[in-house]
Design brief:
mainly alpha, 3-stranded antiparallel sheet, 14 helices, 65% helix, 3% strand, globular
């Protein structure tokens, strides 16, 4: 039996030429083809390389952390953290690739929504949050969720969105708006307390307001306020004072940084070999905060240098992608997101090298983590979405200053 032929009488009223519906598989294939054409393939490759390094590094650090958690009655499996890390990495990779399919408007809306939700959760963390090592930073939602981790990309997106209002109305005090938001978040973080994240948020804010054109005189004044805040934190915030004193003068209760520095140099240039390190067995949080030191002991300082180069290449590639960008929101959001990622990575590395006080920050894409891994992949997914670009579309010439001047003059 053959299908009935199409007749003009069956055509809907007012319809033009009949076009059969496009099959779902073809639509998906076309969308995938567009995504592959627009995505920054080198940026994606660098991300995948760091994730691969993270799998090997957590495999090396997992036995040490499992041994420290084991008791006489219960033995924690040596590769428990490694197995969980594989699961979190797969979840994070799926999240990141899925987000990279979003267009810029969708990425902006999602970032604003995530920022608003996590900011609301930040208000209740000191009340209902779980306490670990004297700090309340986590909420139990089936897994330990740290709202500040997901707030970082949301904060960058919200700041970029608000600062881009300047193109519609140059008279809006947008810098004061985002500065007020920064002050609110810093106050909420100090209630946990979480000085490390407060400093990282400040770095994201600083980069974005500088790109948005903050006068240097105002920047100097705000720098003085920030320095005063650090002094007050040292005087009235016991955890900050102990960490800074331990960093400057050593000690017994807060000497993790010294242990990390001794561990990272124990393997020399080429390392002891996988699972042959011994210093890592005494290193606290070997699979998270101090995984860079474990890499140094078992794979050597040469490998540590290569990892630093990978991070530098990723940050520079993202910045190069933003050079000449003719969309102010995309430029500011991309700069904020890569500042968050790069800032967290290099703070962690400096802590392991005993060049910075301990901050409790993981090494993004490499350290073990549940919510932290998902938060980093959420950040990079938004970055990949925002930096997507049709290679066949020409952009307006000029940089950020030219873009702002053109818009303000009505050109």
């Amino acid at each position: 039996m053959t299908a009935p032929a199409y007749t003009p009488a069956a055509r809907p009223r007012g319809a033009g030429t009949y076009l059969p519906p496009v099959p779902v598989q073809r639509r998906l294939r076309d969308r995938l083809r567009v995504w592959w054409r627009e995505i920054d393939k080198l940026l994606l490759l660098l991300i995948l390389l760091l994730m691969a390094v993270g799998i090997v590094a957590v495999a090396a650090a997992s036995p040490a952390s499992a041994d420290q958690l084991s008791t006489a009655k219960e033995r924690v499996p040596d590769f428990m953290f490694f197995q969980r890390h594989i699961v979190f990495q797969m979840m994070g990779l799926t999240l990141m690739i899925g987000l990279s399919f979003l267009d810029r408007d969708q990425a902006r809306r999602l970032g604003i929504l995530a920022g608003a939700v996590m900011l609301a959760l930040l208000f209740v963390v000191p009340i209902i949050g779980e306490e670990k090592n004297g700090a309340r930073r986590w909420i139990n939602v089936g897994m330990s969720l740290q709202p500040s981790e997901f707030l970082k990309p949301g904060f960058a997106i919200i700041c970029a969105w608000v600062l881009s209002w300047r193109l519609r109305d140059p008279g809006l005090p947008v810098i004061w708006y985002v500065s007020g938001l920064m002050g609110l978040i810093a106050a909420l973080l100090m209630l946990q307390p979480n000085l490390g994240d407060a400093i990282l948020f400040g770095g994201i804010w600083l980069v974005m307001v500088l790109l948005a054109g903050m006068p240097w005189q105002r920047l100097v004044a705000l720098g003085g306020v920030g320095a005063g805040g650090l002094i007050l934190a040292y005087l009235f915030y016991d955890n900050a004072r102990n960490r800074i004193d331990g960093f400057l003068g050593g000690g017994t209760a807060f000497d993790q940084v010294d242990l990390a520095q001794r561990t990272i140099t124990a393997g020399g240039w080429t390392g002891t070999g996988l699972w042959l390190g011994t210093r890592k067995m005494n290193l606290p949080e070997a699979h998270t905060d101090y995984i860079f030191s474990v890499i140094g002991e078992e794979f050597g300082l040469v490998m540590c240098g290569m990892i630093v180069l990978l991070y530098c290449a990723l940050v520079l590639r993202a910045l190069m992608r933003l050079v000449g960008e003719d969309n102010l929101f995309a430029l500011l959001a991309g700069a904020g997101l890569i500042t968050q990622f790069g800032g967290q990575a290099f703070i962690n590395i400096l802590v392991n090298l005993k060049l910075f006080p301990s901050k409790g920050m993981t090494l993004p894409l490499i350290s073990y983590g549940g919510s932290s891994t998902l938060a980093v992949c959420f950040t990079l997914g938004l970055l990949l979405a925002i930096t997507r670009r049709n290679p066949f579309l020409a952009r307006e010439a000029g940089g950020l200053r030219d873009l702002i001047e053109r818009k303000e003059s009505g050109a």
